[in-house]
Amino acid sequence: MMLKVILVSLAISCASAIVCEPDICARVRCAAVTAESCANGNIVQGGGYCGCCDACVQTLAEGSSCLSTILLGVPATATCDDGLICDPATHTCQKPSVLLQGVVKRQISVVPAGTTTALSCAQRVLQMQTASSNGLPLLGQTIPKCAADGSYAPRQCEGSVCYCVDPNGNQIPGYTANIGDSGNMDCQCARDQYAYQQTGLIGRLFTCTNTGSYQRYACTGSVCYCADNLGQMRTGTQTVNIGNIGALQC
């Protein structure tokens, strides 16, 4: 978790610090990049600060750490070799086929036989990583967060806003939060409610917070009780009629 915080902080600070004004190159002094000083890499013309300077970009072999390459908006000093992309899970250079196989193996281990698995999020991440490795910019795009089975994680964030999505990445209306207030945003209630609505059934009451998590209480019909973060009745809790829900001490 701390690593993620550090990465986000670095990305924000670096990206915000690099402001490429129209005449910036006139005020930039570039260090010389020569074949001798870049013996273990490739010289990329205009690959440095704001495109003003040349850059020495190291080529990373399969299995090498590519942690520094994920900082969008920061001049790249290294890139995965041809045919490799940076695995967002392990931050190492891997072949796309290896990453896809890894996702499928994780799916097989958690998804019951006969169930259709979801690879949409994993495929989207691979697509974006492949585009980045081919030199296509990702500025303005957000790499989605994936669950262990390759589907979309319940909470997604873009800029300063976080929201709930279903396993296919479709936003669930009505559940958003500022990124600073999204620490406890698990979207479990929003997802359960959304899935229930897709069945066409009626009668179940969901008590979600504004951020998509379960309230501290839940109701089944006219009977209400204290609930856990999955909406299930807590062991030993009292039950009250829905008209007396204010009497619950949750």
Automatic annotation (TrEMBL):
Transmembrane segments: none annotated. Residues 118-187 form the Thyroglobulin type-1 domain. It comes from the Eukaryota. It is found in: Secreted. Its main location: secreted. The keyword Cell division does not apply. InterPro entries: Dev_reg/Prot_inhib, Ser_Fungal_Prot_Inhib_sf, Thyroglobulin_1, Thyroglobulin_1_sf. One of its GO terms (cellular component) is extracellular region. Keywords: Disulfide bond, Repeat, Secreted, Signal. CDD domains: TY. Residues 1-17 form the signal peptide. This is Thyroglobulin type-1 domain-containing protein. It comes from Batillaria attramentaria.
